[in-house]
Design brief:
heterodimer, A: mainly alpha, 0% strand, B: mainly alpha, Rna Polymerase Sigma Factor, Chain: A, Arc Repressor Mutant, subunit A, 2 domains
Chain lengths: 258, 213
C-alpha cells in the first residue's frame, strides 16, 4: 500500500513538473478520472506548491554590491585594473615633466645668453691669435686696414704706436685703447675672469688649442642640455600617450558594465 | 525578451569573469533578493541571513574564475546553500544558547519589557494570509536541511530538476525523491495545522468564486 502511495506521489510530482512522457500522461489522466484519492493527492500537492511559490520575497536589508577595496581583498583585479593606478600616476608625472621642460629652460636660456657673447668673444680671440702670427711675420699693420681681423694684441708697443697713434684712453697706452675698443665691440663681455686673460697675457698656440677645446666643450654642453630636454619631452610624451591609452581603455571597460 | 535578458546576463558574467566589478555588481543587484531569501528560509534569522548573503557574494566574486555555465542563479544559490550549510554545522558544533540579558552593574536579570515582548505578530495584525504564510514557513522550517534546500530551489526559486541537481551536487534521482518527500511532508504538516483545504472546501471555494465572479 505504502509502495503504491509512494509511486502515486512520484507520478503526481512528475506530472506537476512536466517531466511526464505522452504515454505516461495518458495513463495518469485515465487514472485521475477513476481514482478519487489520487485526485485529492494531486490537489494537495498542487496547493503546497502554490503556497510555496506565494511565499513573499523579503527585501534584503542592504545591497550586497562589493566595493573596490572589498573586491581587491579577495580577488586580484585584472591586468587593466591592476596597472590602472600605476598608469594614472605615470600620466600625472609625465605631464609635470613635460611642462617642466618648458619652464626650466628659462634658467638655461639666461645662462645660454651669457655663453653666446662669450663664444663671440672667443671667436674674435681665435682670430686675433691667428692674425697675430701673421702680423708678427709681416710686421706691417696700417690703421687704414684696421679691422677686427687685423687686430694684433700681441704686437710690441712700437708697432702698436704706429698702428694706433692715439695717446690712449685717459693717457694710457694704445694697446689698452685697442683692448677697450675690442671689448666694446663685444656686448656683455664684462666677465672679470676672461677679460684680463685677453688683455694682459699673450696666448700661446697650446693655450689657444686649450681655449678652443673649452669652447667646443661649451658648445657641446649646451647641445647636450638641449638634447636632454628633447629626450625628456619625447619620453614624457611617450609615457603620457601610453598611460592615457591605458586609462581610456580601463574607463571604457568599466563604463561598459556601468 | 527572455533571450535578451540571457544575453545581457552572459555579457555580465563574462565581464565579471574578466574581473569587471561593475558587471559583477549588476549580477548582485539582480540576484540579491533570491540569495537573501534563500538564506533566510534556511537559517531563519535575518541577521545571519544578511551576513550569509554578503559572504555568498564575496565568495562568488572570489571564485568567479571557476564559473562554468550559462546561468548565474543556480551557481550563486549553490554558494549560498553551502554557506548556510556550513553555518548550520558550525551552529550545531558550537550552539549559542540565548542568554537572558543580564545588567552589567548588579548582575541581576534584566527585566526590560523589550526582552519579554513576544516577537510574533500581534493578533490584531494577523490576517488570514499571514497565518498561511506563517504556517508554510513553519512547516518549511521543520523540514530537514536536505529536503528544505530542494524545496526552496525548485518550488520557491523555480529552478528545474537539472539545475537543482547541479546546485546541490546530487544525482537527479536523489533530487527528485527528496523533492517528492519534501512536498509530502509539507502537505502533512499543513494539513495538521489545518491550513490545507479539503477537496470539499476546495469545491465550495471554487463555487463561491464562480458565483461571485
Amino acid at each position: 500500500m505504502d509502495n503504491r502511495k509512494a509511486k502515486d506521489l512520484e507520478l503526481i510530482n512528475t506530472y506537476l513538473d512536466h517531466e511526464m512522457n505522452d504515454q505516461d500522461l495518458l495513463d495518469f489522466a485515465e487514472r485521475l478520472s477513476q481514482e478519487e484519492n489520487l485526485k485529492e493527492d494531486l490537489a494537495d500537492i498542487m496547493q503546497v506548491r502554490s503556497q510555496l511559490r506565494k511565499l513573499p520575497m523579503k527585501k534584503p536589508p542592504q545591497n550586497y554590491i562589493l566595493t573596490r577595496s572589498m573586491a581587491q581583498e579577495v580577488r586580484k583585479p585584472n591586468l587593466l585594473e591592476r596597472f590602472f593606478p600605476i598608469f594614472r600616476t605615470a600620466a600625472v608625472f609625465a605631464c609635470i615633466a613635460f611642462v617642466l621642460t618648458f619652464i626650466l629652460p628659462l634658467s638655461s636660456i639666461s645662462s645660454s645668453t651669457k655663453t653666446e657673447p662669450m663664444l663671440a668673444k672667443k671667436s674674435v680671440e681665435i682670430d686675433l691669435i691667428d692674425k697675430s702670427d701673421e702680423a708678427n711675420s709681416e710686421k706691417v699693420v696700417t690703421p687704414e686696414v684696421f679691422s677686427e681681423e687685423s687686430v694684433n694684441p700681441l704686437a710690441d708697443s712700437e708697432l702698436m704706436v704706429q698702428a694706433f697713434p692715439s695717446k690712449g684712453v685717459r693717457g694710457g697706452n694704445p694697446k689698452l685703447e685697442y683692448l677697450t675698443n675690442a671689448e666694446r665691440m663685444i656686448p656683455d663681455d664684462r666677465s672679470p675672469v676672461s677679460t684680463p686673460e685677453i688683455s694682459s697675457q699673450p696666448i700661446s698656440g697650446e693655450a689657444a688649442q686649450k681655449e678652443i677645446q673649452n669652447l667646443i666643450n661649451g658648445v657641446s654642453e649646451s647641445q647636450t642640455t638641449g638634447s636632454a630636454e628633447t629626450i625628456i619631452r619625447l619620453v614624457s610624451i611617450g609615457i603620457l600617450a601610453v598611460s592615457l591609452f591605458w586609462i581610456a581603455i580601463t574607463l571604457i571597460k568599466r563604463r561598459q558594465w556601468a | 525578451m527572455k533571450e535578451k535578458m540571457e544575453t545581457d546576463e552572459s555579457k555580465l558574467i563574462k565581464g565579471a569573469i574578466q574581473g569587471n566589478l561593475n558587471a559583477f555588481n549588476q549580477l548582485v543587484m539582480i540576484y540579491q533578493t533570491a540569495v537573501y531569501n534563500t538564506a533566510l528560509r534556511i537559517v531563519y534569522d535575518e541577521d545571519r541571513a544578511n551576513d550569509l548573503a554578503q559572504t555568498a557574494f564575496i565568495s562568488a566574486w572570489q571564485h568567479m574564475d571557476s564559473f562554468k555555465g550559462d546561468s548565474f542563479k543556480p551557481w550563486i544559490l549553490r554558494i549560498t546553500i553551502n554557506a548556510c550549510y556550513d553555518e548550520l554545522r558550525r551552529q550545531r558544533r558550537h550552539p549559542s544558547v540565548p542568554l537572558e540579558p543580564v545588567s552589567t552593574e548588579d548582575d541581576e536579570e534584566n527585566e526590560d519589557v523589550h526582552w519579554l515582548m513576544d516577537p510574533s505578530p500581534q493578533p490584531s495584525q494577523t490576517t488570514e494570509t499571514n497565518e498561511m504564510i506563517q504556517a508554510v514557513e513553519n512547516c518549511l522550517n521543520r523540514l530537514p536541511f536536505d529536503y528544505r534546500s530542494v524545496l526552496l530551489l525548485i518550488d520557491v526559486q523555480e529552478l528545474d530538476y537539472q539545475e537543482a541537481s547541479e546546485v546541490l551536487d546530487k544525482p537527479l534521482g536523489t533530487v527528485k525523491s527528496r523533492l517528492f518527500r519534501a512536498r509530502q511532508k509539507m502537505r502533512d504538516c499543513l494539513k495538521e495545522k489545518g491550513e490545507l483545504f479539503s477537496s470539499e472546501d476546495r469545491y465550495f471555494d471554487r463555487k463561491d468564486e464562480q458565483d461571485n465572479g
